Amino acid sequence: MLKRRKMEPIDDCIFHFTKLATFKDHILKEDSLRLSPSSRMSDPIEKNWYFSRLKEIENLNMAMANNIKIACFCKPFHEIESNKIPAYALARMWDQYGDHFNGVCIGFDRVKLENLLNTQFPEHNRVDEIKYTMNLDPEFEFGHSKSKFDQKVHEILNTSTRKIDSSLFLKLYKETDLYGLLFHKSLDYRDENELRLSVYSNQNGYSYIHKIKSAIKLIIIGPNVSITTASQFILDLPVTIYRLVFKSPYSIMGSSICTSFSQSFCKLEILTNDNIKIWQKLDKRRIELEEEDF
């Protein structure tokens, strides 16, 4: 029987879903978290609205597209039908961002992550919640009106060489709500409960937050991840490792594995070197049952 262990609180965490290979080969091996150019945002509505606001301002659109880098996280809890559900328990997030339940959910200590951000990107960074709205149109107010925003941007650019370098961007950032454009999204995405990180960097392509392992508080592997595969690199980390189990007939076999969080649809189960053999037996039995059902 596996031992009980109380789960650490997650109120100070923000969660990032990713593929197992990305976690292993980049986040762990390179000790870094990748930030993508804002031009790579996947939501076409958000992207079109965001860049249409800047299309008439010379050079600014391209600077924003290439030099603003972002990474996306979930806030620790979601309110669903008056229930407070941990971010890591949402099946949709695992399916869409956690490699269809084959990935990893990383719990970052928000304070430690922001300290890394402030050290490595001291002048141009922001961590904030996404604000969801029904109507992402050019007249949408995100701090002050479109006309005032555009007027201020043009005033700043008209007194410069109109080349968007780091110093000019910092002036735009301080005197307008330039970053505010990045923190609004269509209401359709409200269930993601997103918290976004953004920085400005002249570095081409991706940018990176280094020494990222120091900000990791806990790791949750997806329910479809092979324990044998995960145990080859994940168990030696100096943080607590959990596995998310969505309850089903075969998962009841592991009901003696206790957890501090339990809902009607899923539970977290501790993963340690001491119980790895038990986990491997459960995985083997799960595969056998799936083959029988097939």
In short:
By secondary structure, the chain is α+β, with helices and mostly antiparallel strands.
* Radius of gyration of CA atoms, rounded to a whole number: 22 Å
- Specify the biggest β-sheet: 5 strands, mixed
Overall mean pLDDT stands at: 77
Helix/strand order, N-terminal first:
EHEHHEEEHEHEEHHEEEEHEEH
Explained architecture:
Helix content is 31%, strand content 25%. The protein contains 9 helices and 14 strands. The protein has a 5-stranded mixed sheet. Strands 7-10-3-2-11 form a 5-stranded antiparallel sheet. Strand 12 (216-221), helix 8 and strand 13 (240-246) form a beta-alpha-beta unit. Helix 6 (146-158) packs antiparallel against helix 7 (166-175). 31% of the residues are buried.
What are the main properties of this structure?
about 290 residues; alpha+beta; five-stranded mixed beta sheet; five-stranded antiparallel beta sheet; 9 helices
Write the topology of this structure.
Elements: E1 13-18, H1 20-28, E2 32-37, H2 44-52, H3 60-67, E3 68-74, E4 77-80, E5 83-86, H4 91-97, E6 104-109, H5 110-120, E7 125-129, E8 131-133, H6 146-158, H7 166-175, E9 184-186, E10 194-200, E11 207-210, E12 216-221, H8 227-231, E13 240-246, E14 266-271, H9 276-293
Parallel strand pairs: 8-9, 12-13
Antiparallel strand pairs: 1-6, 2-3, 2-11, 3-10, 4-5, 6-12, 7-10, 13-14
Helix pairs in contact: 6-7
